[in-house]
Design goal:
4-stranded antiparallel β-sheet, 13 strands, 0% helix
Length: 146
C-alpha cells in the first residue's frame, strides 16, 4: 500500500473514549508507515475528506517533529479537494501546508490561513481549515470526527 491508497483502507472505529468533547468517534485512517514524511494523503470517512500529514523527525519541526496532523482536504480558495497535495513546511517553527492551487499557507496545528496570497475564499467558505485530532495507537492512525 502507498500513501495514495489511504482512501482504500477499510475504515473501522476505535473503541476508546476521548478527552476531547468534540470527538464523537475515532476512525481508522491507515498505518503510520503508509504515510511518507512531508507528503500528504487523503482519507475519506463517509462524506468527509481529510488530508493527513506526517512530519519528519527533523529538528526544523521542533516539538512537532514526527507528529501526524489532519485537516480538511477542501481548499477554501479553489473549492477543490486538494490540500493533501500541498507542500509541507514551517513558519516561525509552526508546521504548515501550502495549498497547491493558489499557494495559501495554512497552519497544520490550528488550520489558520497564514498567507492569503491576494485571494478570497470561494462560495463563502471560511478561510481557515478545519483541523481534526489524531491519535497514533500501535502504529495505526485514527482521526477524531464529530
Amino acid at each position: 500500500m502507498t500513501a495514495h491508497d489511504v482512501s482504500d483502507v477499510q475504515v473501522t472505529r476505535g473503541n476508546w473514549g476521548s478527552d476531547d468533547p468534540g470527538v464523537a468517534r475515532w476512525e481508522r485512517a491507515c498505518l503510520l508507515t503508509d504515510l511518507f514524511p512531508e507528503r500528504g494523503a487523503a482519507a475519506l470517512f463517509g462524506d468527509v475528506q481529510v488530508a493527513l500529514f506526517r512530519l519528519p523527525d527533523d529538528t526544523a519541526y521542533g516539538g512537532h517533529a514526527g507528529r501526524v496532523y489532519a485537516v480538511q482536504n477542501l481548499d477554501p480558495f479553489s473549492a477543490a479537494n486538494v490540500v493533501s497535495r500541498g507542500i509541507v513546511g514551517t513558519r516561525a517553527g509552526e508546521p504548515t501546508v501550502a495549498a497547491p492551487v493558489y499557494k495559501q499557507v495554512f497552519s497544520l496545528v490550528t488550520g489558520t490561513c497564514l498567507v492569503l496570497a491576494d485571494k478570497t475564499p470561494k462560495d463563502d467558505l471560511p478561510a481557515d481549515l478545519v483541523t481534526y485530532p489524531v491519535e497514533v495507537r500501535e502504529g495505526v492512525i485514527y482521526v477524531g470526527l464529530t
